[in-house]
Amino acid sequence: MSSRFPPRRSSDDGWNVIFPAGFVWGSATSAYQIEGATGEDGRGESIWDRFAKTPGRIRDGTSGDVACDHYHRWREDVALMKELGHRAYRFSVAWPRVVPQGRGAVNDKGLDFYSRLVDALLEAGIAPYVTLYHWDLPQALQDEGGWTHRATAKAFADYAFAVARRLGDRVVHWITHNEPWCASMLSHQLGEHAPGLRDGRAAVEASHHLLLSHGLAVPAIRAACPGAQIGITLNLSPAVPASSSAADAAAARRYDGWMNRWFLDPVFRGEYPADMVRGYTRKGWLPGDLGRLVLPGDMKAIAAPSDFLGVNYYNRAVVRSDRVAEEDNRPRSVVVDPGAEHTDIGWEVYPEGLLQTLLRVHLEYRPAKIFITENGASYSDGPDGHGRIADTRRVRFLRDHLVAAARAIDLGVPLAGYFAWSLLDNYEWSHGYAQRFGLTWVDYATQKRTPKDSALYFRKVIAENAVE
Ligand code: FCB
């Protein structure tokens, strides 16, 4: 592969750091994290509106009611992307803006907003990558059982069709779901995200219906938009045993099954991993008769041929066997290297994990194409006396992860693009506004946006199609 991209420059240890021609560069956001305007133009309530207002759920007690006020400032934000040299933008559509009650009447005003945004992006030379579900389920569907309820999958496919019919004349790239692990396990088993349940069985049911909804949405999007390129975004983490003991190795394997294989295997192989099916059945999270949850045809639908896989990569899990934690499938993550660096949200900085993840997915699952649909770091560095934001740790984070991405390409991974998380500091879910992942600083009192040093660094990378 490297012969196709002759090294003009190289990283410290001599690897190629030039990206292939046509590599897609951009940033990502999601609706609830940036839009605000939760009560405007007929938007319905989402499970995140409800969750964020439930006392005790969000660390700083805030909600996405205003967030980055992007719903009103989208023109300015598109201009910012253009100024920062971005060539693509991954954003999500809020289901409750488009179908306020989850199913039934479509709200044209909601679609109008995204239609205007798409036009502005295209005019600025920025390719839209649309995510259809980034966690903001209409509350009306939650009231019927949400993702634990099979009918939600069908409602999602109908919503996907409505969006694709309106935007499909201009949008080529579609992502059905963002991180179904978060929308099922983190939110139904661990209770940390909306709807905040702690119920393993509900989590597994939700995971199946989320995956099924992906499978039903793929043909629905293709029907509305024949040239569509469609994929799903998974958050993947390599699971590494904390020691050479057999118990730790087994724990790491289970963690990998819970986090990675439970989603990769159905999408690419049309089956759930047998070891996890056994484990979940033993726990009572799956019915003894699997056929009560997984109906004939479901697995074939889930494995509907797609055009790419989106990979969100943040960190790895170093796993130690622990009986108590194992009961809720939550093996402990331990830091092996006491010198390891962590970002402000407490996640280990581990760029090699991106290379490991990309190679593993390529070798074991063979997606036709991969996009890194999110990668980024929470650092709270703010403006100095001159208004400059010298976020040198984020610059280094970006650089090291981009070197890992370039290396993956050299090793044959069909990696086609990279989206930095995030364009803007924004509402970081249960952490509220305290965690800042943006390339751009947002002053929440004035809504002023200021590009950080990392944004300027990223602009240079994009312009040169190479890492310095
Ligand atoms: C991912 C989410 C994204 C953001 C980043 C930090 O799990 O997809 O919305 O919260 O983490």
What is this structure's SSE topology?
Layout: E1 24-28, H1 31-34, H2 47-52, H3 70-83, E2 88-92, H4 95-98, H5 108-123, E3 127-133, H6 139-142, H7 151-167, E4 173-178, H8 180-189, H9 200-224, E5 229-235, E6 239-241, H10 246-269, H11 274-283, H12 298-302, E7 308-312, E8 317-320, H13 323-327, E9 332-333, H14 352-365, E10 370-374, H15 392-410, E11 415-421, E12 440-443, E13 448-451, H16 453-464
Parallel strand pairs: 1-2, 1-11, 2-3, 3-4, 4-5, 5-7, 6-8, 7-10, 10-11
Antiparallel strand pairs: 8-9, 12-13
Helix pairs in contact: 3-5, 7-9, 8-9, 14-15, 15-16
Bound molecules: beta-D-fucopyranose.
Beta-D-fucopyranose binds next to loops.
Question: What can you see in these coordinates?
Answer:
The structure is a single chain. Helices cover about 40% and strands about 15% of the residues. The protein has helices spanning about 30-35, 45-50, 70-85, 95-100, 110-125, 140, 150-165, 180-190, 200-225, 245-270, 275-285, 300, 325, 350-365, 390-410, 455-465; strands spanning about 25-30, 90, 125-135, 175-180, 230-235, 240, 310, 315-320, 330-335, 370-375, 415-420, 440-445, 450. The chain has an 8-stranded parallel barrel with strand order 1-2-3-4-5-7-10-11, surrounded by 5 helices. Helix 15 (about 390-410) links the parallel strand 10 and strand 11. The chain is globular. The two termini are about 20 Å apart. The model is unreliable at about 1-5 (pLDDT under 50). The protein binds beta-D-fucopyranose (FCB). Beta-D-fucopyranose binds near residues 179, 429 and 437.
